[in-house]
Amino acid sequence: MSVSVQQDDFDIGAEITALTRGRHQVGALATFTGLVRDMNDGSGVHAMTLEHYPGMTETALEDIVEQARGRWEIDGVRVIHRFGRLMPGDQIVFVAVTSAHRGESFAACEFIMDFLKTRAPFWKREETPQGVRWVDAREADDSAAERWEQGK
Amino acid sequence: MSVKVLYFAALRDAVDCSEEIVELNGAKTLGELRAHLAARGERWAPLAATRNVRMARNQHMAPGDTAVSDGDEIAFFPPVTGG
Question: What is the pTM of this model?
């Protein structure tokens, strides 16, 4: 169960323990956690709702993890992405990768996040003082994913 | 010959529809199906905005030249913004 798409919050410590317990071949653990910010594009954000495409979301994330496994010698991978209504400071996404040495973990963790940003079917809707608005995709996210296509 | 079509996020709001069953009516690819759906009147025009619409066939992102067949689950949605 390396991928979870859920409404509930998650416990980073427990996830790390589950990924590393008894895995003494692992010498490196890299993690990324995404949080809801209270500001975006110049407006205050007092809540955010994440919509997703049930079924496809899980498949897309599993496919991204498989691609990472094909590129780097990694031991364990854990991806959690939440959906539903979230408040500033809430955790949105968690990616953890373990490997023998740090290079593989760092690279695979960043690769998974970059691909998730452009390939996994999630959409953010923000509640701001000016009203509710869908978040536009950022070109910087496309560029971040594309640089992995160009053979690094 | 029909397919289930799903719409998500801002695109769903724009066309005011989350799901429908549509006849393929000779459409052989995702792109043809999309053009046929977008041509149904002003309400469906947002589907034609190429830059802002992504497509999936049976829960995998797919380009416009992807073949569609009876019983497929097709989805149209804006560029994704998760993470």
Answer: 0.94
